[in-house]
Amino acid sequence: MATSESRLLMLIDDEPAQSRLVSALAAREGYRTLVAGDCDGAVEMLASPEGMQVSVILLDQWVPGDDACTLIRQLKALRPAVPVLMLTASTSPLLAVEAMRAGATDYLIKPVAPERLLQALRGATPRASARHELQPLAEKMPASLDFDAMVGTAPPFRTALAKAATAARGHGHALVEGETGTGKEMLLRAMHASSPRAKAPVRIVNISAIPASSIESLLFGHEQGAFPGAFEKQIGALQNCDGGTLVLDEIDRLEMTLQERLAKTITSGIVRPTGAAHGFKVDVRVFAASDAKIDALVEQGTFSDELRDLLSATRVELPPLRERTADIPALTRYFLSNIGKQPGLIHHSIADSGLALLEAYDWPGNVRQLQAVLFRAAVFCEEESLTATSFPQLAELLGDMGDRGESRLRGLGVMLYTDDGNLRPLEEIEADVIRLAIGHYRGRMTEVARRLGIGRSTLYRKLGDLGIDNAA
């Protein structure tokens, strides 16, 4: 296997422009790229001495030759340990399922954002091979636009949603902060859908997905001939969103000069395209999201304090999943319900052993990562229920920590499911609830009865019927 200093990427692609772009991006992660123009060439190259050093394979679905899934199986048969990533223009969940069942490690939708490609390459490297189950597969699932789809009851999360819902009904700008994968873009979409401008134009721009050389024209527009290569006039997103909403994801990645220009535009309400002799009056509401704390960036001098103040009419902070682990069961069942509706998949339940494992993990990728892990497990699980064995890489990562998750779940007092995914009998669940209450209230039976909403006589009768010792 290639060392980290000489990692080799095999790109199977017949588009020269895309090959050059991918090669340049891969070089950022220390990869040298071999390009094969068709399936036969890829198989031949993989068998060569140089091909034996390949660390990752990136396959364009439309490369000439065999069906992409057939080629994936062939490549995995030749080199089982080498991760295969598939690049496609299709958004079909069924194709994602087929590709992963054929052996693909990840599935990228064109046009792929540079950071998304780099993220996939980082996850596919040998040093991270044990973590491949935790790669971001969430792009296969459509995002909901409803506040009701934001699942969770943790107080910090509900506070954030309430604040966002109130702000959505107003007219001011808003800033949402939170770690990657906490659901910032989904929240901003829900805010727009609940706002007075819901039926007005909206544009979502991911700053990190746009080349730095293009972001200025994309936001502000330019006139024909404004700079070398400006062969035609371009209307910017700010002008296109007149009367509506502009959503700027990862605004912390915007260059300082453009931050200042954006602040000036928001303040004056006039956008002036590059090279234009005059500006245009616009009425645009800006929703922005940031992975980093904007206040910290302002202190570091890398973010405009004026833009920060303008966007902070409402500021919402989404908590990371590790701070709302009690929401994992509800999120898991919500995601499994949605995943089960995708072509080629069935609806899975989840056993307590599976939930225990999910609750034990810290989820650095947050809710998006949880969804991705469940998607992969659902693809490969043929049983009705997901159990701990459905997440082998997660169990490997946690090691003994998996027991902590089981203990934590038992600490909640009630196991609802058996290991085969079926519900336990109601009598057993009821007995566990009563034991939990007796232990929690330290044997104070009057308090136990009050908290359970039953009379003392009823409680004692149940103790007898269920064979529970008062001192349990």
Compose a concise summary of this entry.
The protein has 472 residues and is α/β, with parallel strands linked by helices.
SSE layout and pairing:
Layout lengths: L6 E6 L3 H13 L2 E6 L2 H8 L7 E7 L7 H11 L5 E5 L4 H10 L3 E4 L4 H11 L30 H14 L5 E4 L6 H10 L8 E5 L5 H9 E2 L11 E2 L1 H4 L4 E5 L6 H13 L1 E2 L8 E2 L3 E6 L3 H7 L4 H7 L3 E3 L10 H12 L9 E2 L1 H9 L5 H15 L4 E2 L5 H7 L2 H11 L14 H15 L4 H8 L3 H11 L6
Parallel strand pairs: 1-2, 1-3, 3-4, 4-5, 6-13, 6-14, 7-10, 10-13, 15-16
Antiparallel strand pairs: 8-9, 11-12
- Looking at the overall shape, the CATH architecture of the largest domain is 3-Layer(aba) Sandwich
Overall domain count: 4
Q: Structural class, please?
A: alpha/beta
Please bin the fraction of helical residues. 40-55%
Tally of DSSP β-strands: 16
InterPro entries: AAA+_ATPase, AAA_lid_NorR, CheY-like_superfamily, Homeodomain-like_sf, HTH_Fis, P-loop_NTPase, Sig_transdc_resp-reg_receiver, Sigma_54_int
Domain Response regulatory: 8-125
Pfam family, one: HTH_8
Modified residues (4-aspartylphosphate): 60
